[in-house]
Structure formats: structure tokens, C-alpha cells
Amino acid sequence: MIRIALKGPQLLQALFVCMVLTNCANSQSLNLFSPDYDVKLGKQVSAEIASDPKQFPVLPEKGNEEVYRYVRGISKNIVNSGKVKYRDKFAWEVKIIDDDKTLNAFCTPGGYIYVYTGLIKFLDSEDQLAGVLGHEIAHADMRHSTRQLTKVYGISALLELVRKDPNPSTVEQIAFGLLNLKFSRSHEKEADGQSVVYLCNSQYHAAGAAGFFKKMEGKGSNPPEFISTHPNPGNRVEAIEKKAKQLGCSGGKTRQTEYQRIKRLLD
Ligand SMILES: [Zn+2]
């Protein structure tokens, strides 16, 4: 996903302490941070992204109003599905990154969503993009980054770190570390499933994300960026389609024609 060198020796120290004492948290659901912390981290990370246009060339709003309105509309449909826990607390802001070579999207803690033009151009229909956005929104809404931080750095080490230095520079250091974190396979599975839950409560074909993974499988030996930041939990397509069936999702909209029209605006 994002490559920024881990700064803040304290974090490395914390990790070391955690490894030596083997008192790292191992519960997937444990989260030492409050949702307010996710909000703070999101602000920090999004500011970091805005200040690095070389790595993150944000597509200008001017001249791309229609594409922005369209992608934000999809995100809004998901956020308003009634199934997003932090709908009113997190930012849920969408930015498009002008990079045709990257087939990826990501969402920071606290709901700052980034979609690459490469991903928009790669997909075929609106439900597929909705499925991927649902997956990203789920990572933020289920607070996977701070859960992962809790797990990697260990509870006592993190408590110590925040106790010693409860000021914004600590947040900054954690944010830097966060940019290098990969989600775990179980978080991937969870985000896939939650994407179906969101879309099931919308007008979309609920297994939209499966369409994306099917297309990626077709890319064979040249897997897109998405795989490196979202480890493959295996049988994704099957699991997503099964979940949609189990939930009895009835919405079937793929909006292919409109999607193709929007794609052409990016050419
Ligand atoms: Zn993921």
C-alpha cells in the first residue's frame, strides 16, 4: 500500500519489548485504542498523504467533478446502508489518486478513502467498485488498523508509550508505523464478509467484490498492488458468493453502462 519509512525509535523499542516479554496481545478483536484515536490517526495519515503529491498524485477536483460525484455517490450508498457502525463518527471522505498503473484502493483509520484511477479503469461495473469500496470501508469501520497495532506492538508496550508521551508527536509516530502495516488474513476475510453485508442492504449486487477478485485471478503471475497490502485469505470468491446467498441479498444492480461512461471520462 503505502511505503513510508517507520520513524519513531520508541515504536521499534516497543516492538522489541513486546517480542522479548512475549506479552503481545493475540486476540483479533482486542483494541486498546478508542474510536477517537482512529479519527486522530486518520487525520494525521490523510495530512501525510496530502503533503506527498509525488507518491500520491491526487486527481484534481476541477475538471473531474463528474467522476468525483460518481465515486462519492457509491461510497455514500455504502456508508448509508444502515450497517456502518461509525457512519457519523468517521470522515468517509473520498479522494481519487491519478495513477493508472496501481490497481488499488485503501481507507485510513477514521474513514479517509483513496481510490486509484488504475482500479477504476480495471473494473467493469459499479457493483465491483462498490464491493471493493465496501471492503475498504469495512477495514476502517471494524477498526482493523488499531486492532492490528494493538496486536503487533503489544498492550503493555503501547500503554507505556502513550503514558510516557500522550502528545500529538506520539500519534504521529504511530501513524507512520501504521502506513507500513499489512492487514492480517483474518481481517481480510472479515472485510470481504462485511462488504457483502453493506451491499446486501443497498441496491447493488451484493457479491460485487467477488467480481473484482475473479478479474484479478485472470491476471495470473502479475498480481496487482492490492494483493501485497491485502493478503489473500483463499477462496475469496467462493466465500463472498456464499455469504450473499446466506443473507438472501436481493439487490442486483451492476450499473455497467453508467460505469463504462464514467470510465471514459478518465481517458
Ligand atoms: Zn483488505
Quick description:
The chain has 267 residues and is mostly helical. Helices cover 56% and strands 5% of the residues.
Question: Main attributes?
Answer:
267 residues, globular, mainly alpha, 3 strands, binds zinc ion, single chain
Describe this structure in words.
This protein is mainly alpha-helical. It has one domain (9-265). 56% of the residues lie in helices and 5% in strands. The chain has helices spanning 9-21, 35-50, 65-79, 117-122, 126-141, 144-153, 155-164, 168-178, 185-200, 208-217, 225-229, 236-246, 256-265, and strands at 93-97, 105-107, 112-116. The protein has a 3-stranded mixed sheet with strand order 1-3-2, with helices on both faces. Helix 1 runs antiparallel to helix 7. The structure holds zinc ion. Zinc ion binds at residues 135, 139, 183, 188, 191, 230.
